[in-house]
Sequence to fold (730 residues):
Amino acid sequence: MHVTHLTRRTVLAGTAAAAALASLPAAQARAAGAGAPAYRWRNAVVGGTGFVTGVLFHPAVRGLAYARTDIGGAYRWDDRAARWTPLTDHLGWDDWNLLGVEALAVDPAHPNRVYLALGAYARSWAGNGAVLRSEDRGATWTRADLTVKLGANEDGRGMGERLLVDPRDSDTLWLGTRHDGLLKSTDRGATWAVADGFPGAPTASGQGVCLLVAVGRTLYAGWADSDGTTPNLYRTAADGVTWEAVPGAPAGAAAAKVPVRAAYDCHTRELYVTYANAPGPNGQSDGSVHKLAVTKGTWTDVTPVEPGGTDAFGYGGVAVDARRPGTVVVSTNNRWAAVDTLYRTTDGGRTWTSLKDSAVLDVSETPYLKWGADAPKFGWWIQAVAIDPYDSKHLVHGTGATLYGTRDLKHWAPQIRGLEEASVVQLVSPPVGEAHLLSGSRDIGVLYHDRLTASPSRGMATNPVFGSATGLAQAAAKPSYVVRTGWGDHGNGAYSEDGGRTWAPFTAQPALAEEAPGPIATNADGSALLWSFVHWDGTRYPAHRSADNGATWTEIASFPKGATPVADPADPTVFYAYDMDAATVLASTDSGLTFTARATGLPFGDSQFKLVAAPGRTGDLWLSTKWNGLYRSTDGGATFAEVDSCRASYTLGFGKAAAGADYPAIYQVGSTEAITAVYRSDDGAKSWVRINDDAHQWGWTGEIIVGDPRVHGRVYLATNGRGIQYGEPV
Fold:
């Protein structure tokens, strides 16, 4: 059910998207304009839902820890409040690639200093990475742009920390890159240069330097591009400057594996290294654990369980207990048959105990973790493991969806409050009913938000369970009727007759649905469905229609392949669609049986162009065309006029009208001047006010925005990695 984030969560794939971003002017920092309303922004609570790739406790400060994620930024643990504080929400539209955290580092000698290496993709269409440095635990940052790319949302993103403060000199930092070797800074991260003497030869592919760890005053670096005959582990030599291969490192089959993570037990002077035959988090089928007695130079194989046969997996995380010599925890990874676990030893690896076997899991705070089953899993994609240096029984491990913690090595619960990483693609705010919000995400399907301040009590929408949502729609005149589509194991479409509380699968579905479940729409009274089909690789197929609640389906040849169907909210006989190939809006007046062209000559676009119908009206359409601006039609798409109050529009939605206004409030992510931000208009787009600020930007936010039809001013915003943000006037 959980495929890689790289295929499911890539924001902008390909050169066309890169060109789109490159054409935008750089965002200029400025406060909200004069007269703009003050807004309070919070997450609609889900709790996690993304890959926690690293957790680091500060060795010298009780209760201080940091976490990194693949696309959702970095967080600091507030021990008193027992929650995580986001540290990178200030990164804006042009810096969307920096919401991926490749590595983090703390300075043991200076507790207030923290460093982040940022960059989600090392692809040609992504920007270069950057290093943020802070003197106040992440409250404020100073930025240094790099000339190389990082890959926090690519294979290997759960490997060891690639960023390290030199224990011999706090002004010196080291940064391991995937394709550009080892970098060094001598001014606390302000400037960077290639480190002299590092033996690894950079390549355009592979993983490069995959971990950095201090062993006393010696530095060790994992090298993930070994071919089995070349070293996979290096260390600084006696002079502390040059590098050498670590003598006696695991040879033969083990040498062909990737060093994933390493941790040093300063009491026993032993370095523990986990290995796998792929960088992970996917694709691992073999692995091992070894330790090096650094003073003797001897290696010992301390693998808890040998992978093999039907029980194939790699090893991932490793953590040592700072208070108890010889006490170590390692994790398995990609172990689907027997489910991943943590192994713990108290005797230096001679014997191990599986913590999963005695674990009691309590996910009542985040019920979605049951994934539609009776009981939750102990974890998967476990590569982040950490032991509190001040509490030997406080252990945490990251998964593909949450961060589990224990205080007694037996009882486990999500330690995830404040850390929200969902990649959200669908939002509906119902006009009536218990829930003010329904959402669909790439990782957890559809949720019914009975409260905005707590994880949905019903968990994921079941019957069937979707691992990723592709469509969510509500009948405008019959809000109790909702439909959804997505990637599921037991069907790809479902309907609800109670506003999204409970679901039933469509009786039948087109053959295309299993391979390419795309967006869906229902007309105003729920009597007709239009289901569009788009594969995750972008391939588009003919849409299908059902007039019997999904019992039978008919192909609609006149509907543009891969387009998103839009229902008229007032007339159940009318649907619309934007044809991205022909730059044309089409309409149907027979409940979706046939479509004919209306307005032509519109801006050519792609699947990110958004056609939206204004609520309560027929034929009132708005088309967001990214940097080409915003267009409106009041005649059902026959003609469109450009809205001259904004220069760029990426997504647009509607909410309750302001007091005395005769048109719904309009919300958009776009640009009225130079900056891309979140705006509201209470006068039909004649004027706009910015409602977010420079501290609340969340990278790329162009997927979907909707206002609350019952609460003027409240708006829900989908992000690609920071969950659902909702704002309200204060």
Summary: Residues 1-34 have pLDDT under 50 and may be disordered. The CA atoms of residues 98 and 716 lie 23 Å apart. Residues 5-30+47-414 form a domain with the Methylamine Dehydrogenase; Chain H fold (CATH 2.130.10.10).
